[in-house]
Structure formats: C-alpha cells, structure tokens
Amino acid sequence: MALSFSNTVQALTYTKVADYLQTASLFKDRLRTYDNQPKFDILYGSTLVEIEVLPWEVHPWQKADLATVRASSCVTVGSTISPDLMRFLLTENRRMRFGAFHLDDADQVLFAESVLGGDNMDVMELQTCILSVVTIADTYDDLIVERFGGQRAIDRMNDTDNSYQIRVG
C-alpha cells in the first residue's frame, strides 16, 4: 500500500521530514520508515520516538491546507491511573515549555510535542522537538515508575517473555 496524504502540504512536510531524518547524523542510523503511513520511528538511546506527519484539519484559517509533525514517546506502561498520577502529569505539563503528557487508549503514559509543517518548517525546530521528547521521556520514566508503578516503556519492549506491544501516539 502506497502512502496517501490528505493534502499537498502534508505530502511536502513528509518529504522534508524524511529528507532530514535520512541525512541527519543524529537520527539516520536509528531510523525506521513505514511504507503505508506517513510516520517514522527512531530508537534514540533508551527512548523510542514516533514521528508522524499529520494533516491539520481543524484550525483557525478558513482556506488553508496545513500539516503538523508530532513526535511522541511512550514513557511508562502499566502505571496505576489514579488521581495522584493525573495531578502529577497535569502539574508537570504546566512546567513544560513545549509538549505535554497524555494517556493513550491503553492507559500508557506518553509525552508528545508538535511543530507546524509546510514550506516554512524549520529543521532546527524539528530536531529540538524530537530531542525534547527523548529527554522528557528518558527523564520521567524512572520517576513515574517509582511513584506510580508500572514499567518503563523500554523495559516492556525488551521483555521477550511478553508479547505486549508498545503503542506510541
């Protein structure tokens, strides 16, 4: 199945992201691409980051095709979802300069950040977005596991006795 895009800006953004990731010394040796989705995975240190190129369909401009690039990483799996964890994540979100914690449908704790795509997408901003997600996920995984249980996502990925799949995004 070939890649399909919602608009030309999403396609342009995908091409720019792909070109950057495939040539950047920080990422090119750790990159996995997908044939059927506009996304990439990077294993950077002990953090898996998913980078998706998404159409931005609901925005404040009436006649504009836009796209965003979202970098996200699963931080913990199986942490106890409690009011204390929610309070902690919301309080930490307030401290973040960019990006935020959230839960996915399987109650995994994720951290994600986005940048605007298109002709004017800044490569340094994209790199900073990806590295920020790596840094936050790597910093908070031990802290969240210690306080709220569960496992670091990387430990779950390395657990060969368990067929559980880490879902990012």
The percent of residues in helical segments reads: 25-40%
* Distance between the amino and carboxyl termini: 21 Å
Task: Let me know the number of strands.
Answer: 7
Give the SSE order as H and E letters: HEEEEHEEHEH
Helix-and-strand structural type: alpha+beta
Largest sheet: 7 strands, antiparallel
What would you call the shape? globular
β-strand amount: 25-35%
Number of helices: 4
Which radius of gyration do the C-alpha atoms yield?
Answer: 16 Å
Average pLDDT metric: 89
Which stretches of 5+ consecutive residues score pLDDT under 50? Answer: 160-169
Summarize the structure.
The protein has helices spanning 8-23, 83-95, 123-148, 153-158, and strands at 31-33, 39-44, 47-56, 66-77, 100-103, 109-116, 151-152. It has 169 residues and is an alpha+beta fold.
Q: What do you see in this structure?
A:
With 169 residues, the chain is of the alpha+beta class. The chain has helices at residues 8-23, 83-95, 123-148, 153-158; strands at residues 31-33, 39-44, 47-56, 66-77, 100-103, 109-116, 151-152. The radius of gyration is 16 Å and the shape is globular. Strands 1, 2, 3, 4, 5, 6 and 7 form a seven-stranded antiparallel sheet that branches.
Give the helix/strand layout.
Blueprint: H1 8-23, E1 31-33, E2 39-44, E3 47-56, E4 66-77, H2 83-95, E5 100-103, E6 109-116, H3 123-148, E7 151-152, H4 153-158
Antiparallel strand pairs: 1-2, 2-3, 3-4, 4-6, 4-7, 5-6
